[in-house]
Amino acid sequence: MRVASVRASAGGAVASGGRREFHVAPMRDYTDRHLRRFTRLLSREAVLWSEMEKPRAILKAADASSSSKLDRLLRRGSDEGYEVFQIGGNDPATVAEATRLVLPYGYDELNLNCGCPAVASGGGDYGASLMRDGGDDAARVVEAMVRQVTKHGGDAHTKISVKCRVGIAETLGDVLSKDASAEEVRERLAEPLASFLAKCADAGASSAVVHCRQAVMSGLSPSKNRGVPPLRPELVFELCSVNANASSKDHRVPSKVILNGGVSSFADAARIFRRCPNLAGAQAGRWPLLRPFDALHVDAFLAMTSSDELECLLESRTSASLASHRSAETERFEFPFDRRAAARAAAAAETYAIRSAAESRRDAGAGAAARPLALAIADLDDRLEASRASDHREREGRDDPDALAGALDGVLGVCGDLLGVDGGTDRAKRTRKALAKAVGKKVGGKQRGTRAEAAEAAGRVASGRCGGVG
Known about the structure:
Helix content is 52%, strand content 11%. It is of the alpha/beta class.
């Protein structure tokens, strides 16, 4: 267990020091402490989120005969950097008790899930169901969480936040179409959203992450909920001006607003920041699973977008077509996988494997620890295949196939060490086989499906087919 008072301060300073932020979204079966540990080795400044945990799961782990179950559930990924723990529930008392149990683990921020559609249970008792009454229930839960931070000695820097959608729709037929009138958008989405967040802010939420799609509460799968409702980033941008334009008597939304939805590349994030200079940051989910080694460049990207360089780069429009501008803009924020990136990737994988090996022996198994390496290897496989398929002229300034091959060999090597694969001939092949077994068919299938969904989503955003932010 980590104690809040000994938390490393580097991440907190980054997340509150005026720089733009890049968040890796909470994702079930992905953003456990293992993936957070691996991602932290790639980026110092990324804000990393836990999986969402329900209060009853936390309380059940606390009631177990051994404290190790609670430790495995609540442990941070790393002692360094900024981490957020997300809780999903609607009962102030049980959420408060869960908050009390999480606090000693030293998270920088605790987040209340107000955005998950919980389709299987028709809205369930958590997530976006908290938006149904306009924010009164959510505010009560936030207030209970804030009281726990104050009462039980939470670090003075521990923050409470909410993550929500721009609105909810009970069925797909209730979703507001992209061509709805400005009055409809204001009445059905913009005003209720601002009111919801104002209530959460009054209760003590200091920041909000807003997924810029409506949540469809029934009849639409979780994956479809991430792609079918149209993106409405303008509603999130408008929130950033609420406080600046509000009088002292007006309700104010949380002081920090992060946009989620439609962020599939660094170029997407840059365009979002250009359109809304007051936006605190962007959150991405599927993209970091498709291309986990893009995290190597998060820190450099944030340095670029937290300075005048962003405007200099993006104000260089010419009379060229929008498509040409978008292409040039994308190239400005592409970071090639070169020999330096390869060395960093291999070193991160080696450090991760060494640290995970000891924990795996203690926790009796390397399966969960192997999952981030499976995503990393799939990323390198995809990049290497694409690089080799292009001719020499197309590869100029892009990923270096030799660097990719070297990184792949290195990651496979440390993965084999973690899984106890003997040396000798065909070790890489045998490591892949051992990795598939350690990860398991169910998780492996889910990883392939999620990565395919991420690739499709990136294509939609790049072409503007989902109402992007260009």
